[in-house]
Amino acid sequence: MSASVITYAGGMVRWEPGTRERLQAAALDLFATRGFEQTTAAEIAQSVGLTERTFFRHFPDKREALFHGQELFVAAFLTGARESQAGAPPLEVVRAALASAATFFADERRPHSRRRQTVIDANPALQERERHKMVGLADTLGDLLRDRGVAEPAATLAARMGTTVFEVSFATWIAAGEERSMAEIQSAVFAELVALAQDR
Amino acid sequence: MSASVITYAGGMVRWEPGTRERLQAAALDLFATRGFEQTTAAEIAQSVGLTERTFFRHFPDKREALFHGQELFVAAFLTGARESQAGAPPLEVVRAALASAATFFADERRPHSRRRQTVIDANPALQERERHKMVGLADTLGDLLRDRGVAEPAATLAARMGTTVFEVSFATWIAAGEERSMAEIQSAVFAELVALAQDR
DNA sequence: GTCTATAGTGCGATAGAC
DNA sequence: GTCTATCGCACTATAGAC
Known about the structure:
The structure is a homodimer of 200-residue chains. With 200 residues, the first copy, chain A, is mainly α. Chain A has helices at residues 19-34, 41-47, 52-58, 71-82, 90-102, 110-121, 124-147, 154-173, 182-198; strands at 5-7, 13-15.
């Protein structure tokens, strides 16, 4: 497949790097234009000069083409939590995780995030995967809190509150006309959560 | 399929009632013994004397065989919210929803819930569907809160806290050795949530 | 109730990198 | 020689179309 190889000075041929990223970009484009279900894995692969079989070597299923690459966000979120002050109350650890994660949602990223979310919002199967990833993150954060000595059910609750604040904040951040930074929005949402628990 | 019809006095033949329930029970049994992915829709159908086609007439996809029947729980949850005192703070509406939902988790139901959850816990695809349903419930509760005049993001946050308390409580309720009632557990988890927001 | 498209898997073959 | 990315082919099961 000539499109998937590049030629070096010496005439030697190698597989073009960044295959996964090209597949991802092609998948987002096709999902956005034709719709997720109307796009076959073969079409995505062909659009970058590869075969369906290769697509499935890179992604365990079609949905994952939209979710690979979130590892950096997850890493930032957990690093923020890990680096928070020892002995801090659970919600302060959560706040640190959120602040760290916010660095990944710079303003330049907003258009791409909007585009991607539009695709997800249009497909229940993609929404299911997105929730699943978020719960996985909450579970990991819960483990981290338990390692720091937080008891149950506080650890699980605090972790879930963290991902909930993130999800609500993210939805706000990509809303039409929204211009505040992710960090600003998260602070406001977090404050609202605390206020809710007190207004009773 | 003789197993799926019954004969009435007059000799007339009709579809045996409870087809969906029998399919559901068979699905749970097979998923529990062979595993979800190792069980085909055709096998489930055949085990109650029906065809694959009939299975998909009752359930839009294989996973739904495990999730149909949750409508009563959802209805109880939302009814509890609707019947809470007008003007009550958001978390009080949530508390009412939880209290109402708890009536569906009587002690007799615990063994069945445990069995079902074991199957779900063993399969990511089923977990994804379960999360999705729970988020759908949170969304509906959020709508209800907004209808009652709760602003954003408070409505969404309160609703999500409700389903989170439910999920954590349910997991506790079916844990090995647990004997407290669902209502008791929910109260404890709810109190823990409020305490978390105050300990800062 | 049958027919078909597509997701996803398993395995063998190829070809370049090392 | 090993390792890794790819292709190609055969196959099953889901799910939807007819």
